[in-house]
Amino acid sequence: MTEPKTPPGFEDMLAPKGANKQRDLKTFAIVPHHPGGFMNPDQLAKIAEVAKKYAKVVNVTSGQQVMLIGLEREDVAKAWEELGREPEGLLGPRCRGVRFCPGIAYCKRATSDAIGLGTMLDKKFRGMEVPNKVKMSVAGCYLSCTAPAIRDIGVIGLAADSYRIVVGGSGGHAPRIADLLIEGVNRHQVLEICDKMLNYFKEQAKPGERMSEFVPRVSLPQIRQDVLGPIEGLPRWPTKEEEENKVLQGPQPPMAVQTGGQTSCPMPPTN
Ligand code: SF4
């Protein structure tokens, strides 16, 4: 049996491994990943050295990464090699790199660790296949410099090892503020909840559905029941039926959740 032949010039239409074709349809961009955009001066100097040699321009992306733009096709593999990395790049329906801020390591306003938690989330979930791309971010305090309220999953530091998780936000063509999933959880619980949430999304979402469409379609009470319900040590949330009954019974006082022996209302601080 003869091998199917690709049309002449077909190879030239594809981007080399680890590169994105640019608007001019001739040159390419590469993005060496550094979690949260954090790197030491030597790593930055190496990027500058390679950029000087092969790129026309450098851009800091909205995903906190340094993008080298304008590489010729034949230079892409050389650039990756000189960076000392395997070609890499994320396109399509996958979890993107996690955005996170300096948190308690460097920021004077921080209440929580964002670098440690953000790095763990990035390592665990970046590249995971999902029905549509998932953007996540971690903020070291409620000031939310990494915009967790408009991410598919956002994590906001409340205290030393206490975080709030919000889901279903979007800053895209149909902007949406994320819904509060839970608050007062520690970093290990954040990892477990994100893992369960992403797998639940993977199993239950329609093809191509974004988290910002999935969350309102499935409903928050149902998601809490299915995602948080099986996790030990979390507060019990009202079921979907209890939530619906509450609506029928009229306005209710703000719902409180138990957080390590303290009770707190799931609202951001007002000061
Ligand atoms: S979110 Fe808070 S901790 Fe993070 S950079 Fe902004 S002010 Fe600092």
UniProtKB/TrEMBL annotation:
Residues 21-84 form the Nitrite/Sulfite reductase ferredoxin-like domain. InterPro entries: NasD-like, NiRdtase/SiRdtase_haem-b_fer, Nit/Sulf_reduc_fer-like_dom_sf, NO2/SO3_Rdtase_4Fe4S_dom, NO2/SO3_Rdtase_4Fe4S_sf, Sulphite_reductase_assimil. Residues 92-227 form the Nitrite/sulphite reductase 4Fe-4S domain. Coiled coil: none annotated. Transmembrane segments: none annotated. Signal peptide: none annotated. One of its GO terms (molecular function) is oxidoreductase activity. Residues 231-271 are annotated as: Disordered. Keywords: Heme, Iron, Iron-sulfur, Metal-binding, Oxidoreductase. This is NAD(P)/FAD-dependent oxidoreductase. It comes from Heliorestis acidaminivorans.
